[in-house]
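Lab notebook, design round three. We kept the backbone fixed and only want residue identities now. Task for the bench partner: fill in a sequence for the structure below.
Input structure tokens:
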């Protein structure tokens, strides 16, 4: 089977499993069956996601590969700068959220899922995903498999952001106001109404 097709199918399998276990129905059934409080399910979900991502990326790495593209030499510095910016945005996004809450190491608030609206989350609604996209696409050289992986992962990030927004709108009514004032992907540097 063509490696590109295998990458897309592996990404689809990862996406379906990752999203399914984030869905409220499956989450409720697993929590009930295992008698887990919500934050312990979150911890289990994070560990499951990391293991699943490791298998997905390990599988992709094992496939036969070929040269893909390379930016002209003078542009490599720009690509690396974009990647550094993306990595910094990703790390900053993790730093401003409550890591223990995010990982499931402490209980969720009883009222609603919290909204982080400070730091990079004041500029865009999905800075973690945006940082990951900048790292993926700032790379000035990609093999064919890396290109297909970047395309498939990017598509999943866009779909994942859309699914996450639908869930947040159901879980926390305040998310609608946050969404109205904060762009999804591209910051409005010229007009930030608060």
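Proposed sequence:
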């Amino acid at each position: 089977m063509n490696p590109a097709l295998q990458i897309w199918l592996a990404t689809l399998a990862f996406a379906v499993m990752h999203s399914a276990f984030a869905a409220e129905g499956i989450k409720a059934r697993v929590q009930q069956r295992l008698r887990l409080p919500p934050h312990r399910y979150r911890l289990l979900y994070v560990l499951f996601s990391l293991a699943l991502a490791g298998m997905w990326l390990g599988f992709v790495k094992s496939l036969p590969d070929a040269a893909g593209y390379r930016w002209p030499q003078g542009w490599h510095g720009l690509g690396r700068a974009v990647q550094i910016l993306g990595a910094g945005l990703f790390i900053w996004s993790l730093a401003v959220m409550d890591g223990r809450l995010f990982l499931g190491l402490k209980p969720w608030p009883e009222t609603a899922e919290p909204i982080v609206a400070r730091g990079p989350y004041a500029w865009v609604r999905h800075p973690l995903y945006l940082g990951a996209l900048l790292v993926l696409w700032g790379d000035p050289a990609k093999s064919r498999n890396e290109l297909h992986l970047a395309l498939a992962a990017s598509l999943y990030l866009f779909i994942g952001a859309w699914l996450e927004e639908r869930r947040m709108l159901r879980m926390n009514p305040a998310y609608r106001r946050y969404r109205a004032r904060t762009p999804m992907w591209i910051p409005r540097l010229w007009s930030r109404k608060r």
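Keep this in mind before ordering anything: The longest strand covers residues 67-70.
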